[in-house]
Amino acid sequence: MRSDFLVGSDKPVFKTPFFRLALFVPIILGGSLACYIGKAESLVFSLSSGVKSVELFWEYLKIPIAIASLSIPLASWVIANHRSAQLVETIKKQEEKRLYDLYYDHSDYFAKTFGRFIKTHKWFYLEAEDVPVIHRQLFLQSLLNNSGEFTPNPVVLESIKLYLRNITESLDLFIDHFESLQLAENGYELSCHSYRFCVFTRERLMTLVKNLGSRPVCPNESLQVSLSAIIEIYSLYKWVVPEYEKENDLVAVDENKIKTAIKLIMDHSGIANPEELTLSNLEGSLII
């Protein structure tokens, strides 16, 4: 049986099992013992006997009376214990409310500041509407742990770093191999190479979405969005973790390389408008 069930801090003390036990058990035990003694000794008490009857009563029944009288201090102890339990429960609820208030204040501040940052830079992928969900993914764990200190979820941070590491490595390989294929004047391989790279960047982003909470990318959405997401998520990481410069395992993202990759793909595919840089248009440029 749980102690909170016996103490019953969530209900009146008179309805708690502990109070009823403390009040009635001594009385029942004392009364039972008094009946047993009276029957065993064949005691007969009469008011007509006066003082003698009282002395006889006290001589034989003082122990049962003492046992029965324990109900008063025990009941008082239960009442005090019940008040203490209620106080602890109140403090616990106040602390929980304080943590939730801090969490939502932190969420509002994060949404306003980083949301403003998104709008100012006119990003293509991350939107201001995504920020509350991203904040939840990053900081809800701190609330659940009742730490009182809002630190980013290490699982989400690791998934961001893995995403950036994979993308930067594939970006270097893409540019180097693209230039080699250009020298070889292999148009079909260039188209395939461009298509595979764009599919890869989109798949990596969709994998990150599961942990980050950002919006998924539509199948035929402009690839400018997927490639711009690299810079945006890198900026998000730097925003959340100010000490990023001290971390050796965070790969820096070169914005110029991303712009170069977009230009190479567009020039090869004959696409003039970045909004038309979609997988379906790249498929159309493949030579079958």
Summarize the topology:
Blueprint: H1 3-7, H2 17-40, H3 51-69, H4 71-121, H5 131-144, H6 154-184, H7 187-212, H8 223-240, H9 255-269, H10 279-285
Protein described:
It contains ten helices and no strands. The protein has 288 residues and is mostly helical. The radius of gyration is 38 Å and the shape is rod-shaped. It has two domains: 3-94; 123-285, no CATH class.
Strand residue percentage? under 5%
End-to-end separation: 75 Å
How many alpha or pi helices? 10
* Helical amount: over 70%
Order of helices and strands: HHHHHHHHHH
Backbone CA Rg? 38 Å
What key phrases describe this protein's structure?
288 residues, 73% helix, 2 domains, single chain, mainly alpha
In brief, what are we looking at here?
This protein is an all-alpha fold. Helix content is 73%, strand content 0%.
